[in-house]
Amino acid sequence: MNNGRPDTDPTEAQIRATLGSVGNAFFGRFPSLREVQLLAIPPIAEGANILVCSATASGKTEAVIAPLVWRLRKRVREGERPERNIRLLAVAPTRALVSDLLKRLDQTLPSFGWSVGAQTSDHSDASRRPDALVTTPESFDSMLVSRFTRDHGQATDHLLAHVEGVFVDEAHLFDCSARGDQVLFLLERLRRLKATAVERGWIKDPAIQICGASATVFNADELAVRMLGEGSKALIVSGSRELLFLDRGDQWRSVDAASSASAVAQQISVGAGGSKLVRKLVTVFREGHGRKVLIFSPSRAKCDELGEHLACDLVKEVDVWVGAHHGSLNGERRKAAESAFSEARGLAVLVATSTLEVGIDIGDVDVVGLIGPPPDVPALLQRVGRGGRRGDRTRVIPFAESHEHAAALGGMLVSAAAGDFNGGQRFRNWGVFAQQVASYIKQNGMKGRTRKSLIKLAEAVWPDSDTGEIAGWIVDDLIDGGCLTETRSNLHLDGAIVEKIDEFPTSLHANIRSGGTLLAVRDSHSGEIIGHVASAPANGITNVGGKRLRIIGTGDGEIIVSPDSRPNPQDARPLSVKYPTVPFLITRCYGEALAKGLGFAKNDAPLHDGVWWHFGGHAVEKLLRNEMPRVFIGTECSGLALRVADDPSIVKSRFSGAHEVAAALQSVVISARSRYSRSSFDDFLSEEVFSQIAVEALQPRDILEFLQTRRVFRCSLSHPFEAAFE
Question: Which of 8, 152, 259, 347 is deepest in the core (most CB within 10 A)?
Fold first, then answer.
């Protein structure tokens, strides 16, 4: 780790000795370094851009940040005291993860003289320029635009110009998402900012090291290059724990690559009611298989329902703490639930949505509960990975609300055990480019940007042969729509984009759609905002965050409640509130898992009595009905099966190439534009342009291959669930 790579890998003692006080701060309390740390620290300390991929709780965050910080400190000449500037920027997917990472770094960095802070809507530490700053993509974007130091109107410095290292946390959550593509643009803009800073004499060296940590992903080397830059590498540390699930007979069964997905599906409890869950949890607790259980719910409403049911009934059987956690509860409520679960010394159950899918520290989890299947295998891996971190086994309690969900869960569990989680082709989120056009122009103030500079930015981020052409279409479309105006060859923001920014200034930096107007739920006694809902009953008993509440009135945009303290609250069933929802889009990944759990091979497409099970998802279903209405005459099972009037094998020859599929998908996209929109800035694009760019995310080439490889055969049963669950 001195001048070039050593001839042999350094020993643990050598690594610790080299890292010195930094290593002691991060690893001093541990008797030995973990495998991922032994492998990742040397190349990162030498300056390589590395994406470290390993299992949850394997120590990968420390494996990246420790050598990054060590190297940044080493770059300062001995005896030299640098000006106070941000030198390490850490980007995390959510505000909760920012807070979690901030807490962890605050326990290590100050011991050797580094300060740490965060910049989000919840934190505002950037102005004091800590050595390390943790942030979200949205706040990163905002800082790039506005944090200049000016003298008589002239820029003389920028807050982020002195950043020498970037850490991208939970990089897999950014993969093929709008916020992920936003990070790609922001990193390229940071490189450009540093190059400008050198030209203007603000800094001397434009070099920047970018590293990341990720769960195991499909084609990790490709993700490393796309996210961290040309020449970057992925370091993959394999390793898995035995996966066990609690079957219908309350026996623990092992799942591995050789397991039959249909046999697993048959052993999953169907019916996700509270009474069944109580019985399973009592079994787990009384047999000593764990004392802390994290249960993943498919929705916020279900989370409330199960949390309340367990709080009423499970506590009658065992002495247990019960809590709920989802995105509509206010931050303090969520943090309180995290702390209470983490610090519980006895039995504890926490019901959550995907808010706890990623690495927020809630302490050890012994068992993971799954209420229905997640969207795909990577999401399932993320959830089950929260359990059994300190041992060699992961215990899962799967519940299904239907036989369909049991089959999908069975398929996903076996795929997860086998490490089979192909994510398909990568695609470009073009709505993000529209957002970045606005942000990049705003960053340059009154000067605006040239059309050429905007297109070059897109080409630097997405070096595909057609990027420049498509980026040009979008810029011209924004001009034609009045969102951009040209003055002296420079483009400036105008029209609807300016109106949106004037009304909601933070919208300039976000690709996430607003959930609309929400009602605050306020406790009448404490005045605390419990959370936010889309709507609620006018009166009666309701349930928010697993707590029974009595509605006592409404105010200006809020609902006033008080705890329901009656002696027998179970006698009155709570009336449900409504939360903002996103329609569940059945994908080919989900359909493939379902088919696997039903005992079918990957390309099987059974046909019986005029019903064809294609397992292709909503986009494929809509495509077939649009293009072949005489063959596909109705929907039998949304996204999975169609009624047919002719032999569905004809789909194999319907499209001659991916270009035909892409053209046909344009009408699918337009018919449900909001479903296929991935960025809030898609709204500023014309229907013609949106329909052309949105289909890329649907992966036309994959759809073509999917249709051409369908093995249509006649099945003796009218419904495949009859075979799997007879």
Answer: 347
Handedness of CA 160, 165, 171, 177 (dihedral sign): positive
The total number of residues written for the chain in this structure: 726
Q: Is 355 helix (H, G, I), strand (E, B) or coil?
A: helix
Query: Which tokens belong to 526?
Result: 């404490």
Helices and strands (DSSP H and E) totals, the chain: 24, 30
Do residues 528 and 165 lie in contact, with contact meaning Cβ atoms separated by under 8 Å? no
Please determine, for residue 363, whether its predicted confidence score (pLDDT) is greater than 50.
yes
CA angle 213, 217, 223 (to 5 degrees): 70
Confidence (pLDDT) at 51: 97
Over the stretch 79-136, which tens digit does the pLDDT of each residue have? Answer: 445 678 999 999 999 888 898 899 999 999 999 999 999 999 889 999 999 999 999 9
Amino acid occupying residue 372: G
- Cβ–Cβ under 8 Å, residues 175 and 423: yes
The bridge status of strand 165-168 relative to strand 88-91 is parallel
Q: 137 CB contacts (<8 Å, ≥6 apart)?
A: 91, 93, 179, 182, 183, 186
Extract the tokens encoding 704. 């073509």
Other residues' Cβ atoms within 10 Å of the Cβ of residue 515:
14
CA-CA-CA-CA dihedral for 682, 688, 691, 694, to nearest 10: -40
What span, in angstroms and rounded, lies between the C-alpha atoms of 437 and 449?
Answer: 9
Burial class of residue 127, CB neighbours in 10 A (0-12, 13-18, 19+): exposed
Closest among 321, 358, 368, 305 to 545, alpha carbons compared? 305
φ, ψ for residue 443 (rounded to 5)? Answer: -60, -30
Q: Could you tell me the pTM of the whole model?
A: 0.90
Tokens of 558: 């809020």
Contact 445, 194 (CB under 8 A): no
Of 388, 345, 452, nearest to 245 by C-alpha is 388
pLDDT at residue number 272 = 64
3-class SS at 116? strand
Residue among 721, 708, 415, 405 at smallest CA distance from 584: 405
> How far is CA 108 from each of CA 92, 131, 201, rounded to the nearest angstrom?
18, 13, 33
How far is Cα 590 from Cα 405, in angstroms, rounded to an integer? 10
Helix/strand/coil for 507? helix
**Of residues 193, 135, 166, 143, the one with CA closest to residue 49:** 166
Exposed, middle or buried by CB within 10 Å (0-12, 13-18, 19+), for 344?
A: middle
Strand-pair category, 641-644 with 711-714: unpaired
The predicted-structure confidence for 26-55, as pLDDT tens digits, reads as follows: 999 999 999 999 999 999 999 999 999 987
DSSP 509: G
